[in-house]
Amino acid sequence: MRASPSALLLALLAFVAACAGPPTRPEPGPAGRVEGRVSLRAKGFAGATVRFLPVPEDPTRLPEPAAEVTSGEAGVFRAALPPGAYLVLAEAPGLHGYFGRNPVLLVTRLDGLNLPLVPAHPLRRRPAAPGSEGVEGQVLAEGTPVAGARVFAYLDLAGGLRGPGYAVSEPTGPDGRFALPLPPGTYYLAARARLPGSRGRLHPGDRFGVVPELPLRLRRGERIGVDIETVELPSAERMARFRGAAAVVEGRIVDPQGRPVPGLRACLYRRPEMLDRPDAFSEPTGPDGAFRIEARWFGPAYLGARQQLGGPPALDERVGFYRGPRGARIDLEPGGHLRDLLVVVPR
C-alpha cells in the first residue's frame, strides 16, 4: 500500500526534528573522562564540590548538574559523563571556582582542568529609585583592590563570558570600585583586568573573575553591591607543566645494601595493589640504578620496580618497592619534582 503525501510529509518532519538540535548537548553514549585539580592559592584543595552542568538553554536559570564529584587529596577530581558541552564549577564553604575556558567540549577525555578557588563575597541588596537600578562594588585580588579592571554583564553563558557583553563598566580606579547601570533582568557578571598592551583574548598576567551567583537577578527598584575576586592567568610555561607531565619522579633502584640494580624499570601505579601493567614507568636502569618517570596525572601514586611489564609478577621476577613514611605511596603535584627516592629490591 502506498503512503499518502501527508504521511510522507509527517515522516519527513519527524526525521528532521530528530536530527535537529545543538550538537554540543550531552548525548547518550560511552562516557568521556575528565580529570583536573581544585586549588587555593596554588595549592591543591580537597573537599570541594565540582559540578558539570550542560550549557543552559534557558539563560535565566542553570540546569541540574550532569555530574557532581568531590576533589580528593591534592585537590584532584575525576568524573565520567556523556560527551557534550559543559560548564565546570567548583564550590567550598565561602569559596567558589569557575573554569576560565568554560564551556568545555568533552569528546572522549579532558585532562589538566585547573579550578582555582577564590572567596565568594555575599551580595548587598538595597532599594533604589526606579530607573537607577544596577550593580556596584569592587574588583579584588585576594582582598586587594584591582585598578584598571572592567566589569562586563552578559545575558547568557553560551559565549563563555568572553567578548564585549551586553554592558560594560568604566575602568576601576586605585580603589577597585566600579558602577554598572543595568535595567532589571538576569545577568552573568565577569571582571577582567589587563596588563598594558594586552589585546584580544586574555594573556598570562591578566586577571579574570566572575560573580558566583549564576545568574544574578536584578529586580526593579534595586541596586546590588558585589565584590568580585579575580585570579591571575598563569604563564604559558606553568600551563604547559600543568597539562603535560604532572610530576617528575627520580631516584635509584638499589638492593638492601644500597648497591644499584641495573636492568629494572621503576613503575608508578594509581592503585595500591600495584598489580598488572603500571600506569607509568621508566626506561630500564643502567649501571647506576637511576630512573626517571614523567607521570601525567596527579594525586596519590604507588612506586615500585619490576623486570617485566604487564600481568602479575612471576615467582622468579625481581621486584622492589619504595619504602617511604607511607610505604610505597607518594603524592604527585602538577609541575612537581620528587628526587632521590630509593626503590629497594630485596634480592
Task: Tally the helices.
Answer: 2
Domain count: 3
Strand content: 35-45%
* N→C terminal distance: 82 Å
Kindly identify the CATH topology of the largest domain. Immunoglobulin-like
The computed structural class is mainly beta
Radius of gyration computed on alpha carbons = 26 Å
In terms of per-residue confidence, which ranges show pLDDT below 50 for 5 or more consecutive residues? 1-24, 240-245
Q: Bin the helical content.
A: under 10%
Q: What does the largest sheet look like? A: 8 strands, mixed
Q: Quickly name the level 1 CATH class of the largest domain.
A: Mainly Beta
Task: Report the principal-axis shape.
Answer: elongated
* Number of DSSP E strands: 29
Architecture per CATH nomenclature, i.e. the level-2 architecture of the largest domain = Sandwich
The CATH homologous superfamily of the largest domain is termed Carboxypeptidase-like, regulatory domain
Global mean pLDDT:
86
Brief write-up:
By secondary structure, the protein is mainly beta. The chain has 2 helices and 29 strands.
Salient structural properties:
347 residues; mainly beta; Immunoglobulin-like; 3 domains; eight-stranded mixed β-sheet; six-stranded antiparallel β-sheet; 29 strands; disordered N terminus
Sequence-ordered SSE layout with sheet pairings:
Elements: H1 5-19, E1 32-40, E2 43-44, E3 49-54, E4 67-70, E5 76-81, E6 84-92, E7 95-98, E8 104-106, E9 109-116, E10 118-119, E11 124-127, E12 134-141, E13 144-145, E14 149-154, E15 167-168, E16 177-181, E17 185-193, E18 207-210, E19 216-218, E20 222-229, E21 231-232, H2 236-243, E22 247-254, E23 265-269, E24 280-281, E25 290-295, E26 299-306, E27 319-322, E28 329-332, E29 336-344
Parallel strand pairs: 1-9, 12-20, 22-29
Antiparallel strand pairs: 1-2, 1-5, 3-4, 3-6, 6-7, 6-8, 7-10, 11-20, 12-13, 12-16, 14-15, 14-17, 17-18, 17-19, 18-21, 22-25, 23-24, 23-26, 26-27, 26-28, 27-29
